[in-house]
What does this fold into?
Amino acid sequence: MGNRAVSVINRRNRADGNEAKQEGIQENGLTFSYGFTMMAQNGLKGSGMSAGGFLESLPDRAYFFDKGLRFACTQCGTCCTGEPGIVYVEADEASRIASFLEIPFEVLVERMLDPFKDGYTVREAEQGRCIFYENGCVVYPVRPVQCMTFPFWFQNTRSASAWEEVRVRCPGVGKGRLFTREEIITFVQASYPVYLKVVEFIYKGGGG
Ligand code: SF4
It folds into this structure.
């Protein structure tokens, strides 16, 4: 999935522990990368193609993660580099990133983003690296929801075996603090619309 860094940007703004605590939802990950595309493919079966009442009904059943799941990003960068993928950025998120980087919105779009669905996707630098990844995520405090919610995505949390597959790719899985069932469901609800956009793009030819 997409990984992006930008040589133009020198500052490094990864959240430290205190910042992460303050940010709450941002505590759980780095950038979301190629894995999203691949896991979207893996998770397509039975997912449904619209959110409908699905998201609202998520709290109504039992899950393998009812007692929570541990995760702490080790900042290894695996999910921000490597194979190409899609990192969706909606307009409001792009605007926050531009403000954070102190560059005009138009410059951000021209140099670092590409059009995707009703928003953008983060451009990739050499060897599939996220253009915002440079020895760490340079937009960490304002990273897109897709990155913010990793690894607690629908396709990763739909079963214990799916979660185990993520563990193979992400060394942060199983470490760190315990995320509660409620937090995990919140992340799944937040990231699911993006998941659908990527799935539709992959399986419906990328139309709007
Ligand atoms: S620990 Fe996981 S979330 Fe953090 S950078 Fe590595 S692969 Fe990405």
